[in-house]
What we know:
The chain is mainly α. The chain has helices at 3-20, 24-44, 47-75, 77-80, 83-117, 124-153, 172-176, 179-209, 214-249, 251-258, 292-298, 308-335, 341-350, 354-358, 372-381, 386-416, 423-431, 435-449, 462-465, 471-502, 508-532, and strands at residues 158-161, 166-169, 270-277, 282-289, 454-456, 460-461.
Amino acid sequence: MEFGIVELSRLQFAATAMYHFLFVPLTLGLSILVAIMETVYVMTDRPIWRQMTKFWGLLFGINFALGVATGITMEFQFGMNWSYFSHYVGDIFGAPLALEGLMAFFLEATFVGLFFFGWDKLSKVAHLTVAWLVAIGSNFSALWILIANGWMQNPVGAQFNPMTMRMEMTDFYAVLFNEVAQAKFVHTVSAGYVTASVFVLGVSAWYLLRGRHIELARRSITVAAAFGLASAFSVVLLGDESGYSATHSQKMKLAAIEGMWETEPAPAAFTAFGFPDQQARETHYAIHIPYVMGLIGTRSLTTPIPGIEELERQAETRIRFGLIAYDALMHIREARDNADPAETARFEAHSADLGFAFLLKKYVEDPRQATPEQIVQAANDTIPTVWPLFWAFRIMVALGFGFIATMAYFFWRASFKGMNFPRPALHLAVWMIPAPWIAAELGWFVAEYGRQPWTVDGVLPTAMSVSALSMTEVALTLAGFVIFYTVLFVIEMGLMLKYIRKGPFEDVEETDAWILRHQERLTGRRNADANAMPAE
């Protein structure tokens, strides 16, 4: 198999996936924020909240439409570029994708139309129900996609069938309640909520800086700050849960993120800063925080965390056991229905390590013919490049704590300072708009790049998963996807900026009249309070 095809196919999928994820977080978060705003409108009957719902709902609709276009295109790549992956694990991976289409996408697509065109045709409560169904559908989409992805990170509820040479599902509930999938779901949707909150906060701050749409901006900041603060805390806490699950399911990824070359005695320290050196297998100028990694990774102070070198040795051992499974599998395949029970027993005893034998197919057609040097090299391949993971994780975490601080500040100003915000803080909110997208993309990079060299961790190497395509075919489709997605991104940015500059343009007269009456009531209340004060 030509290695260049693998790398180019990976680049194509990475490009399309990361383009697609520019749209996803905002869809997840805005759908909830819009539903919250409409809930307040139904409860209070104040026109300002209806106007807010329509305005932010319009921006949600633009983002949703373009996100759907990029997502549908991306899914075709499983068959085009990763045909052996689709054949080998399609029995498991295809089920959540099908459910995503049936349960979530149709729910979303059906009710999003009612949301935009049903304002004057549905009652308030009915339209509010539609808004929440759109939000639920958006989050259901993320659930099923992340169940599929979580299975690739932690392949439970399935086993290999020697007769079909495929992985087959044995326990749907194990796949559904996979600890990695559940942790990834709550972490990812919380990141989407933070993204939308920062977006609403930044756009509203821009309005305040220009003295436009003051009432809408102040209320939007209040909702975004409260929702964003809770979401930012959840991202950090649920990210900690992802780290804990990685201790059981993806030890090499965790060690690479930490730049942990040697096994850390309990309680393991967290490396706050350093420069990982892959060749020397050392992290230079490392600054350690005692106990923290032990608490995050093991929830204890007595359990050591294995380092990269120990895990590499374990991988070499598993490759050798996998060769026993592979040899037994070949004998079973040759005998078919007359397979020797002893060979079947030998295969079953070592079947969990079969995927490690497949790592050798990068070097030799028949893994049983691999040299000791090739076995050592295959074990070394299980180590991802450390420095990008090390720094991507730390930048992501730093941004996460920055979101907490920013949201806490704006929540405090909105709750206790009469929704008055200093101009430097408003400028900061505007400049922070891209930050959650950077954090989200870094998070996906850590999750997917840290899994290499596996497509399905411990089961199917990436080098085996690709389709039999030429470099030219993959390069042309990569260029086509990048051009197509870039056009969609430019359209998205153009439409978003157009309607942000335009501002809320629906229910203007009704809302302005309500704002005037509201200000008069506040002025009258303040005057009454002043007159009621005793004279000195």
